[in-house]
Write a structure and sequence with these properties.
By secondary structure, the chain is mostly helical. The protein has helices spanning 11-17, 22-34, 36-69. It has one domain (8-69): Arc Repressor Mutant, subunit A. The relative contact order is 0.11. Bound molecules: zinc ion.
Length: 70
């Protein structure tokens, strides 16, 4: 028996991070065209950096407010 097939759905995070080999990258893009699940996942993953930036901005706002109210 061969090892279980590589689960292509799990490549979505690596794809979003841009760490796939060229061959895997192309294979995943082909998969992405026909996989709604991965399209949704990819969109959610690509929103994460924006969320982190928003949180960081809010925190530095709070810090400067603290300083001025003193
Ligand atoms: Zn998929």
């Amino acid at each position: 028996m061969s090892a279980p097939a590589h689960n292509v759905h799990e490549d979505v995070a690596a794809y979003a991070l841009g760490v796939l080999d060229e061959e895997e990258h192309q294979a995943f893009e082909q998969h992405l065209l026909s996989c709604e699940k991965c399209q949704v996942e990819l969109r959610e993953l690509s929103e994460v950096p924006d969320l982190l930036d928003a949180l960081r901005e809010r925190r530095s706002d709070a810090l400067s407010e603290d300083r001025t109210s003193h």
